TrEMBL record:
Listed name of the protein: P-type Ca(2+) transporter
Domain Cation-transporting P-type ATPase N-terminal as annotated: residue spans: 11-85
Keywords: ATP-binding, Calcium, Calcium transport, Cell membrane, Ion transport, Membrane, Metal-binding, Nucleotide-binding, Translocase, Transmembrane, Transmembrane helix, Transport
Subcellular location field: Cell membrane
Organism: Simiaoa sunii
SMART domains hit by this protein: Cation_ATPase_N (SM00831)
Any one biological process term the GO annotation gives: sodium ion export across plasma membrane
InterPro entries, per database record: ATPase_P-typ_cation-transptr_C (IPR006068), ATPase_P-typ_cation-transptr_N (IPR004014), ATPase_P-typ_cyto_dom_N (IPR023299), ATPase_P-typ_P_site (IPR018303), ATPase_P-typ_TM_dom_sf (IPR023298), ATPase_P-typ_transduc_dom_A_sf (IPR008250), ATPase_P-type_domA (IPR059000), Cation_transp_ATPase_P-type (IPR050510)
Organismal lineage: Bacteria, Bacillati, Bacillota, Clostridia, Lachnospirales
Amino acid sequence: MHRNKHWRAAVFEKQNIQETISKLNSDTVKGLTEGEAFRRLRQNGRNEMRAARKKTKIQLFLEQLKDPLIYILLIAAVVSILLGEVSDALIIGTVVLVNALVGMLQEGKARKALEALRKLTTPRTIVIRDGIRREIPAAELVTGDLVELEAGARVPADIRLTRSANLQVEESALTGESVPVEKDALFLADCRQEIPLTERGNMVYMSTVVTNGHGEGLVVATGMDTEIGRIASMITDTEDEMTPLQKRLGDLGKLLSILSLGLCAGLFLLAVFQHRNIPEMLLVAISLAVAAVPEGLPAVVTICLALSVTRMVKVHTIIRRLPSVETLGAVSVVCSDKTGTLTQNRLTVEKCWWYDVMEDVTGTGGRGEHRILPELLRGMLLCNDASLRGEQRIGDPTELALLDFGAKYGLQRERLERQYPRFDEIPFDSERKMMTTCHRLPGGRSGRGIAYTKGAPDVILQHCTHILQEGRSIPMTSAQRKRIGEAVERMNSLSLRTLAAAQSEDCRGGEEGMTFLGIVGMRDPARPEAGEAVEIFRHAGVTTVMITGDHVDTAYAIARQLGIAGHRSQCITGRELERLDDTSFLKRIKDLRVYARVTPAQKVRIVKGLQLNGEIVAMTGDGVNDAPSLKAADIGVAMGTGVDVAKQAADMILADDNFATIEKAIEEGRGVYENIRKSVIFLLSSNLGELMTMFVAVAMGLASPLKSSHILWINLITDSLPALALGVDKNDSKSLMRCPPRKASESLFARGGIACTLFYGALITVIGLAAFLVLPCGILAAEGELVGNPFTWVERLRELMSREQILAKSQTYAFTVLGMCQLYHAIGMRDVQKSVFAMSPRDNLLMVAACIIGFILQFAVTEIPFLIRAFGTSHLSGQEWLLLSVLAAFPLFAHEVIVLFTKN
Ligand code: ATP
């Protein structure tokens, strides 16, 4: 069955359009009926690549065990069994199991979130069914569907073209060749021989990209039956990308592991040297290694990033690559286009000019129909690809505004086009800033037809030699040229976006020697929330730059209104930019805020220039030619309404096209980074505290303050939840957006991070040792022996500690205090600059839950008999609990004192 379908898809290039229609049982005017499309969809399935094989739960679980830490733990378990400490081995086994299960669940959750996101970014396509043009998800296409293709679109299925105009397609996804190839619906392959894919001029294939022109065609294959579907490599699982932070933390983890293993080995040798019990010391050394390895680090980062990506969907942002969340927080310049992002993209034609009348276009209809130049109206409507059908508005907002303009004067594009059928076109291109369509004249008069061109007035004017005056095309005088310039200027000064139209009675003349018809001025109001976002960016040290294809006056008017630029000297046009060499451009770049009439190629130059100046650049774009600048930027931002090519090149997509959403995304990026930083510092300082407590005690010749099962309990059970709670903490958005962006290369330990880690590490060490030594020291003090030569009383300490009961109690103290003090430490870490009394627990309910669970678990290991037996702890009295709780709270006391003294 499949083979048969492939054979069919492969021969369509040899069949003429009529044969194709009958084979597919479709229609090149009306397409399929909805009912038939539905039936075919049910029969043949959705137009999707079969999803990569998902990992099973068992695979995910086993993956969690592939970790050096787990190997160390397993060695610890074996040594424990050899020493007869079976309960220790059981605890280690349980912890390994719980840890792997939790890891599996978390990873599964993160994967699900990302998968849901991937679904959100699936492309849509324009299809004609029942004679009506509509936009549907590409996955719902069926064979026989009549599909429209336009520049920038990803080809949604394998398609036999039925109509084409200057159609060019880039087929690198299929052939690796990135030079676009021309396509022509009229091409017909020789029936007698097989031709390679690249030469099938009348076929376009799924996943290739339309770079130019227009086309229409019938779907001949969908989903796995397409050419790309047959390429096996497309369906193999692609490895998940690691983010830079994950990589850095992975490296840090490895370094710490090596260091700690070295330390443990050193300690072990010391023990051998001191003639201590070797198997016991081996267990201590392993416990130390367990204490030192920051096991939770990479997991915390992945979970924080994945959760943040899910949160961003709520603010209309779709992140396509996980690392972008990190980069977002470091963005220092946001380059935005104007139309639709900074403005509302609800364009309305307000003024209209032709020689030599300026006319207001207001109200809703009919008024002064006779007064608008008919040729101008006709040009604006015929040279137009948008369509308007009740609520369904398909096409570019500029062109839709022109259709509304026509409707006010009782003109409809479709009806007009039936009178003047289009037979050729040169599509709009933001590089050329104009477009042309050629039409036959009414009444079937054959011959030369008429061409209409519309575009930026300055560009159109360069191509005109004549002007229409009183219905006649006469050579344009320089005075008339000047008048046109003045009219454009007047409209621009009123913040109107201008568009001119021209006609040529000879379609063979290209776009030269045309007759100027007139100009329309459209209003596109600024988005009020964009102004607020610019203001927030200013406080956050992020510069906003406007890059637009529009006229400099219109651009400046909007930029001033939004607070992007305050002076005209901050504006530059594409032409001026071209004249600047790199050195002078880099000198001026700091002051420039508005780039007008720039070409997409210049956008790349601007991004690179800013990057050379040390900036981290976010850049928006929506057109075909924006892809290179989106790729060049640190964060490429495509519009939800943009073309597929732009979306594919971008790191993030703004579902609502709104500039203010970028501000929300940057805030989220900064918040996530801050949270990861807090988590990492918390985990490392806690581990350092445990490690040093153990190291100092053992170096003093004492027993180990914690057993390996204790360390595991603290690290993997009471530590992981607070670390996660810090990772999802709600940051104060105002303070986040009040400081300048961090440098991209900045380490997690910059800005006091290293001091914080060392300080709390040292404090936890002191607290841990105090808890461990308080009992024997108390006995020595009572006996009056805690004086004189430290060597003598340390010797006495060793003696006391060798008594099983005292050691068990001291270890219980150390275990309880170290467990609890990390919970207090986590609370303070939420904001190192804020008193705990100023933080709202409601902002982080997970932290509240983590602390409650942590305290209960810590309580359980000294109060529940079977846990007491398993962990070798002893029961604690109320008084002891009180003493240990106060001791454990020292990190929080220290936090409050620091806040008090650092407050300005
Ligand atoms: P931005 O770059 O901020 O989105 P823009 O829409 O003005 O602004 P482009 O799309 O590059 O940028 O358009 C450049 C110019 O081309 C516009 O200022 C306008 O004069 C002209 N133009 C825009 N759309 C069309 C169109 N559909 N047909 C003809 N000319 C157009």
